[in-house]
Amino acid sequence: MKLFKLPLILCVIVLLSIVSACGADDIIHGKSDNWDVSLQRSTGNYSITYIGDEKRIKGFVFDLTGNNIKQQGKALEEQGVPFSMSGTVTEAEKTKDPITFKMSWNNQSETVTFE
Predict the structure, then answer these.
(1) Distance CA 68, CA 60 (A)
(2) How far does CA 75 lie from the centroid of its chain?
(3) One digit per residue, pLDDT tens: the chain, 115 residues?
(4) Which residues contact 44 (CB under 8 A, 6 or more apart)?
(5) Would you say 60 and 105 are in contact if contact means Cβ atoms under 8 Å apart?
(6) Smallest Cα–Cα separation from 82: which of 60, 57, 61, 45?
(7) Which residues 6+ apart lie within 8 Å of 70 measured at CB?
(8) What is the distance between the alpha carbons of residues 106 and 101, in angstroms, rounded to a whole number?
(9) Contact 86, 27 (CB under 8 A)
């Protein structure tokens, strides 16, 4: 009986590791010159992080678009650096179509698209 328990325990540990790793695998990253954006399609969670050289972010707005997806977000005030924002994309898990993030700030704009 002891010989049977050890392989069974190891098998359970391996299966749990595989299952927990599957959820993390669908996090995808995209970068522009000034922004690093990550998206986890299975949950819709996203994160937008400023990676540029400016010291202040003024008038930050982002548009998030895709097939049947249209959201917008903004920072209400001038922000210092480091700056990041996160949230959830509605319906992201239901589409395999491209999802585009367009960030606008300091009279500039850049786009990151997830295919």
Answers:
(1) 24
(2) 18
(3) 455 554 545 444 544 444 444 545 688 999 999 999 999 988 999 999 999 999 999 999 999 999 889 999 999 899 999 999 999 998 888 788 899 999 999 999 999 999 8
(4) 88, 89, 90, 91, 92, 93
(5) yes
(6) 57
(7) 63, 64
(8) 17
(9) no
What beta strand segments (E) does 58-98 contain? 61-66, 69-74, 79-80, 84-88
CB under 8 Å to 40, separation ≥6 — which residues? 26, 27, 28, 46
The number of residues in the chain equals: 115
